[in-house]
Amino acid sequence: MRLKIIHRTEYRYDAPVQYLLQRLRLLPVNGPTQTVASWAIKVDGAREEVRFTDHFGNDTRLVSAEGGHHTIIVEAAGEVTTRDTAGVSGAHHGFAPLWLFGQQTLLTTVGDGIRELAGAAGEGSDIERLHRLMGTIRERVDYKPGATSVVTPAEEALALKSGVCQDHSHIFAAAARAMGFPARYVSGYLMMDAAVEQAASHAWAEAHVPGLGWVAFDPANGISPDERYVRVATGRDYRDASPVSGILLGQAEEKLAVTVTVEQ
């Protein structure tokens, strides 16, 4: 499947910006599940300082602004050909060692709730247990925008029984690690059946399974990602793979508007 994607992020400030530094992870790369046909990132109102590939293999760019800028627009757009591999993206690559993805983070700390969830995966093959985990998360944690924030830990979202795809992914990663699987967070895009325009990008998780390598699971939708998904960045949790993050110095107040379109 060939997907066309436009991801536009607009920042508006009510006063001049003293200093702003943003980290962009917005460029998908070629791999077993996709081939990038074309892609471009445009930044208006800020300048690019440096670009590099981080230790998770993510294309990363730093942009900065200072002075009289009141509006900054970041737009990533292009076309990607995707393949359905039943969620399997294969062997581990990159500078980050596999054992790193077995470690807890502040957003994926394992508590009593996560331990119970991991235990509920029961017996069976690795894939059966992980699919059972995904299904249980979908049953227990309702999709509810606004119930959590980007700093909500997995244990808290599980207790709230509500959250968004980011929370589902953190819960899955934390529980999979408690089950003995290295796990990672994936940010990217999903072509939805009912809507071309979306309010945000998407997120899911992957577990490293002996004999298969990395296998993807999307608890928010209860499936392993197929040809409707485009992967952009990976990491231990949201902080390692967020599309845009940064710091702002000064008194200016920020208003953020995000639009994402994904269509065949």
Can you offer a commentary on this structure?
The protein has about 260 residues and is an alpha+beta fold. The chain is about 20% helix and about 40% strand. The strands form four sheets. A five-stranded antiparallel beta sheet has the order 3-6-1-16-11, with no helix packed on it. It has a five-stranded antiparallel beta sheet with strand order 7-13-12-10-14. Strands 4-5-2-15 form a four-stranded antiparallel beta sheet, with no helix packed on it. The longest helix has 15 residues, at about 125-140. The chain starts with a strand and ends with a strand.
How helical, in percent, are the residues?
10-25%
CATH architecture classification name of the largest domain: Roll
Largest sheet composition: 5 strands, antiparallel
Structural class category? alpha+beta
The tally of structural domains comes to 2
> How many H/I helical runs?
5
Task: Please outline the helices and strands.
Layout: E1 2-13, E2 17-24, E3 34-44, E4 47-53, E5 59-67, E6 71-82, E7 88-90, H1 112-119, H2 126-140, E8 142-143, H3 154-160, E9 162-163, H4 165-178, E10 183-190, E11 197-198, E12 202-209, E13 213-217, E14 229-235, H5 238-241, E15 244-249, E16 254-263
Parallel strand pairs: 8-9
Antiparallel strand pairs: 1-6, 1-16, 2-5, 2-15, 3-6, 4-5, 7-13, 10-12, 10-14, 11-16, 12-13
Helix pairs in contact: 1-4, 2-4, 3-4
Nutshell version of this structure?
Helices cover 18% and strands 42% of the residues.
